[in-house]
Amino acid sequence: MSAEKGRVEPAPDAFAFGENWQRYITEYVTPERERIAADSLVDLLEVDLAGKTFLDVGCGSGLFSLAAHRAGARQVISIDIDQDSVAATETLRRRSHASQNWRVIHGSILDQALLDQLPIADVVYSWGVLHHTGEMETAIRNASRLVAEGGLFCIAIYNRVTDRYLNSERWRRIKRRYNQSGRLAQVAMEWLYTLYWAAAEVARRRNNPLRTARDYKTRRGMALRTDLVDWLGGYPYEFATAEEVVRFCEDECGLAKRKVVSVGPRDLGNNEFLFERPV
User: Fold this and answer.
1) Per-residue pLDDT at 171 exceeds 50
2) 121-127 and 75-80 as β-strands: parallel, antiparallel, unpaired?
3) CA 108/CA 105 separation, integer angstroms
4) Is the pTM higher than 0.90?
5) Is 88 exposed, middle or buried, given 0-12, 13-18 or 19+ CB atoms closer than 10 A?
6) Per-residue pLDDT reduced to its tens digit, 237-250
7) Pairing between strand 102-106 and 75-80?
8) Closest Cα to residue 41, out of 66, 17, 13?
9) Residues 61-105: pLDDT tens digits?
10) Helix axes 224-233 and 168-180, enclosed angle (nearest 10)
11) DSSP-derived pairing of the beta strands 147-158 and 53-57
């Protein structure tokens, strides 16, 4: 089954997330990383996916859709606005010999027509995605509408940081500059950022960067090189404190908080959230 198609309107200066994910599944995906990703999904959701409908909004590589499929989800629906991400997910779907219970859709969570066509899901999962839509609050609200009563809404959103030099607002400008630059300038920025990351590992954490790179797969099965480029290029880019996300999801989306896994107040990474739609 080929990927289904919805209306797609990516931002004109958006980062090519799909190209990055294509490299990831080509160079890094292994059975070990697949297992690590599946374990991280179970740890975060704290629920058995067998027999449930799993909606993956911004599926990226398709790795977590694959994990849900293998966990016995009754139906998996993977959506992404980036055609290369759709192709990456299709690759994993074909490798898994999935039947008709795994659909891959090229579309946007901001597309009202697509929303009206999607089923209500037991689990709506969108890890590190909705802050890249350019309309984060609308994206969160739209995705939350698809959660069934008693169902789960799992998202990860970049933390808002104000009290350091490279704060959230400065990183927004860096990311925009990266995406507006030619490829040679982008490569130079990637190398500079890699050196910056390595120096920060040594200075802040007293870590050996090579050891960190080797062990990086323990973080949801990800690869360091993929994540460094994803962070530098990840634009559009929005952010919020954990408290802001919880307040919005409870007050504006009618959800109830089940769990928050927060990063430090000066950490630019993702806060993770698990909400439930009250019955």
Assistant:
1) yes
2) unpaired
3) 9
4) yes
5) buried
6) 999 999 999 999 99
7) parallel
8) 66
9) 999 999 999 999 999 999 999 999 999 999 999 999 877 899 999
10) 90
11) unpaired
Quick count: other Cβ atoms within 10 Å of Cβ 99? 9
Q: What value, to the nearest 5°, has the Cα angle with vertex 196 and ends 183 and 234?
A: 50
237 φ/ψ angles, rounded to the nearest 5 degrees: -140, 115
Cα 129 from Cα 197, distance rounded (Å): 22
In terms of DSSP bridges, do strands 102-106 and 4-5 run parallel, antiparallel, or are they unpaired? parallel
Summary count for the chain: helices (H), strands (E): 11, 8
What's the rounded Cα separation, in Å, for the pair 22 and 40?
A: 21
For the chain, list the domains and their CATH numbers: 15-159+237-276 (3.40.50.150), 168-233 (no CATH)
Indicate the residue type of 57.
V
Residues making up the chain, counted from first to last: 279
Closest residue by Cα to residue 96 from 84, 104, 85: 104
Intra-chain end-to-end CA distance of the chain, in Å: 35
Instruction: Quick: pLDDT tens for 184-243.
Output: 999 999 999 999 999 988 887 667 888 889 899 999 999 999 999 999 999 999 999 999
**Is the pLDDT at 268 greater than 80, yes or no?**
yes
Cβ 105 vs Cβ 4: under 8 Å = yes
- Give backbone dihedrals phi and psi of 241, rounded to 5 degrees, phi first: -70, 160
Q: Output the 3-class SS for 71-98.
A: CCCCEEEEEECCHHHHHHHHHHHHHCCC
Q: Which amino acid is at 181?
A: S
Return the residue matching tokens 């739209």: 142
Query: And the tokens for 5?
Result: 């198609």
